[in-house]
Amino acid sequence: MHIHPKITPIYQTSVFKFEDLNELELYFGEPGSRYLYSRNGNPNSDELAEAVNRLEGGVGAVATGSGMAAIFAALLAFCQAGDHVLCAADIYGGSSSLLNQELSRMGITVTYVPFEELYALDRFVQPTTRLLLCETMSNPLLRVADLRRLADGCHGLGLKLVVDNTFASPIITRPLALGADVVLHSVTKYISGHSDVTAGVTVAADAAVAARLKQVGVLYGLTLSPMESWLAVRGLKTLHLRMPAHSHNALAIAKFLQQQPAVRAVYYPGLPDHPQHVLAQEQGGGLFGGMMSILLADDATVVNRFMQRSQRFPFAPSLAGVDSSLSYPLGTSHRYLTPEQQAELGITVGLVRLSVGIEPVEELLADLAQALA
Ligand SMILES: *Cc1c(COP(=O)(O)O)cnc(C)c1O
Question: In the record, which positions carry N6-(pyridoxal phosphate)lysine (predicted)?
């Protein structure tokens, strides 16, 4: 019997068989020719890593159990006890918690760099500074980083640039092509795209870094399961179709919301009045993604009413699925910042973040109109 599946089956196995000692030696002698143990490598997780690697233009990648694991792997690829990292102040809450609460225990220290000062890093650099961690588009205000300028700045100071490209996806921006050393994703978001997978991936521009990422993945046990990998690969196949759809819907919604008296501000890089609109246009090839934040009245009653009335934007504290949702930075992602930090980042009671899906846009507009009425 010849079985020729069109797509990669799920290799739901923790371990692989060997005929004899000769075959075992082939595993070590011809890397990539065989599999041994799924934590070290599995056809499904390799397929995901290789697919994202190709999209991002890297030389090697590791698929991880979450976006957090992807960030951890990237930091440990470059840092050890005694090292110091720079981190953009506008960063995913989990990233800053990882740095503050966990990597600090391992002797890795951090300094946060305000958005306005990202292009003048010299005054933040110490002799032990290894890298800058930043996001292509930040959460929740969608500030856009000029990655080429950042890469030049970092390299001039001997630092690596690590970019969390979760919000943009490689369809909108490819950080390695702009000079970044490592790019990573919460695959949970756009890469898988259907709100049914928790996963991550970290991609390196350099072979030695890729090997280091692989080692960190295997030895810390960060690698991804076959089933999750398979689902993420399935999602990834439509990423290039989904991102334009998310972007077109989001632009129409941003323009609509800007006209609504109940909406005090709309933060979306596709709007001409966004502070980095021109950069976003250039760096994103005309697509601005599906994420935006809106400012309602700074009054929890108003926010609650909006959440309760909206049918197509359920309050679900994640993002980037084909189905729209909304989130609340003050109560979720940025909950554990100090009130001063929250205020500095513009995260107030009235700030609501929308993740615009790929539904028919008229339905989304009608829903928002009635929720705001
Ligand atoms: C969600 C998210 C993460 C963390 O990813 P998980 O898959 O939840 O571990 C990291 N960075 C950004 C920008 C995210 O949105």
Answer: 189
